[in-house]
């Protein structure tokens, strides 16, 4: 079992729709969870982090965390073509500074 | 403040050669982590350096090594290059002192091609 799993996609949504990206992790003691966006040919950039159960909203982005289910998700409301990218879920180990990444979900937002 | 600086941006090397990549973290950040990214394997953790010491290590062969200097700048070295080492190498800067939020800031990466 991989430490961090994501649906590889591709996920395609129409402009203005809600895009839902999902991630599960294996280490029950994980404490912090991050979403990175990576455009083609670029390096990952941090867009959201969450460490408490529940929802965290930042503009059009909402991160959701359920530690009991070991599940974290990212919702993108009113999706725009500029949101087309690969989204990486990352989980921070409870014991050190190690960050483990999922394989990423490629999102395409069609005009 | 200045971001994370990786040099060089691109490299082409021949099998059997060695290569050294450099990463300067954000000022005040003491942790530098290195990742290899390939289309098939995604982001794979190489190692992390904190205060000049290797603190964590991923599952890569001994041909991959690194070090960190007193100013927190880090280098990684790959010896006896193989075709499979062709990848984007990313370094990530962080405070390295734990806590609920201590996210990574990535450099632009070094694209290594082995021919």
Distance between the termini of chain A: 37 Å
- What is the percent of helical residues of chain A? under 10%
Which two chains touch over the largest interface?
Answer: A-B, 23 and 26 residues
Query: What kind of sheet is the major sheet of chain B?
Result: 7 strands, mixed
Oligomeric state of the chains in view: heterodimer
Shape of chain B: globular
Shape of chain A: globular
Number of β-strand runs of chain B: 11
Question: Would you report the number of β strands of chain A?
Answer: 11
Distance between the ends of chain B: 37 Å
Output mean pLDDT of chain A. Answer: 92
DSSP strand content of chain B: over 45%
Which blocks of ≥5 consecutive residues of chain A have pLDDT under 50? Answer: none
Order of helices and strands of chain B: EEEEEEEEEEE
Q: What report would you give on this structure?
A:
The complex is a heterodimer of chains A (111) and B (115). Chain A is mainly beta. Chain A is built from no helices and eleven strands. Chain A has strands at 4-6, 11-14, 19-25, 32-38, 45-50, 54-58, 61-66, 71-76, 85-92, 99-101, 105-110. The radius of gyration of chain A is 13 Å and the shape is globular. The mean pLDDT of chain A is 92. Chain B has 115 residues and is mainly β. In chain B, 0% of the residues lie in helices and 52% in strands. In chain B, the strands form two sheets. In chain B, strands 2, 4, 5, 6, 9, 10 and 11 form a seven-stranded mixed beta sheet that branches. Chain B has a four-stranded antiparallel beta sheet with strand order 1-3-8-7, with no helix packed on it. Chain B is globular, with a radius of gyration of 13 Å. The mean pLDDT of chain B is 93.
């Amino acid at each position: 079992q991989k430490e961090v799993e994501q649906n590889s996609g591709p996920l395609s949504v129409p402009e203005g729709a809600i895009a839902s990206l999902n991630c599960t992790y294996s280490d029950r003691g994980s404490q912090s969870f991050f979403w990175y966006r990576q455009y083609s040919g670029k390096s990952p950039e941090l867009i959201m982090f969450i460490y408490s159960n529940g929802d965290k909203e930042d503009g059009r982005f909402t991160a959701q965390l359920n530690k009991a289910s070991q599940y974290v998700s990212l919702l993108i409301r009113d999706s725009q073509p500029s949101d087309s990218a690969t989204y990486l879920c990352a989980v921070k180990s409870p014991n050190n500074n190690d960050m483990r990444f999922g394989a990423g979900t490629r999102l395409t937002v069609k005009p | 403040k200045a971001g994370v600086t990786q040099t060089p941006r691109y490299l082409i090397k021949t099998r059997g050669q060695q290569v050294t990549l450099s990463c300067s973290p954000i000022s005040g950040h003491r942790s530098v982590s290195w990742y290899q990214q390939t289309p098939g394997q995604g982001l794979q953790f190489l190692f992390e350096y904190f205060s000049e010491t290797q603190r964590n290590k991923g599952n890569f062969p001994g041909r991959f090594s690194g070090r960190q200097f007193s100013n927190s700048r880090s280098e990684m070295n790959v010896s006896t290059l193989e075709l499979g080492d062709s990848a984007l190498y990313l370094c990530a800067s962080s405070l390295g002192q734990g806590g609920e939020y201590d996210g990574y800031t990535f450099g632009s990466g070094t694209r290594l091609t082995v021919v």
